[in-house]
Amino acid sequence: MKSGIPLDDGLAAIGETMPESGRKILSQVEADYHETYSLETALEKSGVFPDYFVKMVGIGERSGKLEGVLESLSTYYDRDSRMKTQVRRAVLYPMVSVCAMAIVVAVLVWKVLPVFEEVLESLGGSAGVLSGLGPGLGIGVLVFLGLLILCAAAGAVLVKTGHGSILGRIFGKIGPVRRVLKKVSAARFASVLSMLLSSGYQIEEALEFLPAILPDRDSAEKVRRIGNRMSEGEPLPDAVQDEGIFPGLYSRMVSIGFRTGAMDTVMSKLATIYEEDADNAIQSLIGTLEPLLVGILSAAVGVILFSVMLPLLGIMSAIG
């Protein structure tokens, strides 16, 4: 659009750079656009674009600011994609460790321990209480790991099917996770508000879009309360500070941006800051969780081995 290429030609050019599935979608969008000359309608008919994206395109068409809206959407979805990639990577590494540990424990329980027990019995030793602890503990660890893997798989299915908010409600009660979700919500709040304001929206109108795209219910409710307080005549900076969307320094930045008419610039800066904070918080959380989980499982493996090796070593020492 910046180059002055007609929209239908631009859609065709983009389709040429995409794989077959994407090319078919854009061909259909191009055909629908030829019929209606409404990009919003064409995108909606395709059924593959997010509702938020389609609505924002419609706003851009009606306001004559489609180019600016699309540029803002590009920034928003780029940030959103980077954050989701960080979360996926953060979850993937611990789960790989858990799966590897599950294989190790399974081999110990069903392959290694029976061999040790046979050797122990052949030497005339008794399994005893300690030796009997190994298989039981191993099976318990396997059950725990299996439940952990099932929970991770269920979480992935929920996210894939668009029900990720359920995970937010479940894990949002845990302190460290709740702090990460607050940072993610603050980043998304600032990013979307910046985009809407730069597209010509009034603050009151922009706030109506926000609750539907925030990752946790608590933050969405705060935004609704901010909108209600503004409708009663309270300034945005006061409402944002009272609801605790941003801490002290950043609340003052919002106040300055509100007074100078540069709210979109301030919100864009805050979005960048909170995106980095959210990434760091996620990495810190996983950096704490992964060694803790591996340490616990390694200790369990050690107990399983020693439960059979100690009686065996005792008999061999007596023989020697």
Notes on the structure:
By secondary structure, the protein is mainly α. It has 13 helices and no strands.
> What is the quaternary state of this protein?
single chain
Dominant shape: elongated
State the major sheet.
none
Share of residues in strands: under 5%
Question: From the helix content, strand content and strand pairing, which structural class follows?
Answer: mainly alpha
Ends apart, CA distance between termini: 87 Å
Number of helices: 13
The overall average pLDDT, rounded, is 76
| DSSP strand count | 0
Radius of gyration: 28 Å
Low-confidence stretches: none
Order of helices and strands: HHHHHHHHHHHHH
Helix share of residues? over 70%
